[in-house]
Amino acid sequence: MYSLEEELYRFVAQEIQRLQDVEYCMDLIEITDPYNHLFRNIGVGVQDESHNIYRLTDLCMLDETMQWIPNRSRIRRIVESV
Questions:
Q1: How far apart are CA 55 and CA 49, in angstroms?
Q2: Of 52, 49, 57, 50, nearest in space to 19 by CA
Q3: Where are the domains of the chain?
Q4: What whole-number distance in Å separates Cα of residue 8 and Cα of residue 74?
Q5: Residue 29: DSSP 8-state
Q6: CA neighbor of 11 nearest in space, from 41, 42, 48
Q7: Which residues contact 36 (CB under 8 A, 6 or more apart)?
Q8: What is the model's pTM?
């Protein structure tokens, strides 16, 4: 079984692949159940970190080849606060 950090990283990577153009994406990711590693894309709305809702672009970064990838350090900080 993977850690919450690794599962969230994988989920963000899948969303990047699914959406293709993350730069202009307004989608939100919700950590619905951190103990069972459940996440969902809730579409467009308002980011609310107190309810574990994060903008997808905040969970990503550009790598040296200008490709969007999950931001492991940001994900790690989020997981530590959940």
A1: 9
A2: 57
A3: 4-81
A4: 11
A5: E
A6: 41
A7: none
A8: 0.88
Q: Which among 17, 12, 13, 14 is positioned nearest to 28, based on CA atoms? A: 12
Bridge partner list, 43: 28
Q: If DSSP codes are grouped into helix, strand and coil, which group holds residue 13?
A: helix
Per-residue tokens: 9: 């990283």
**For residue 67, which amino acid is it?**
Q
* pLDDT tens for the 82 residues of the chain, in order: 688 999 999 999 999 999 878 888 889 999 999 888 999 999 888 888 989 999 999 999 999 999 999 999 999 999 998 8
Residue type, 47: Q
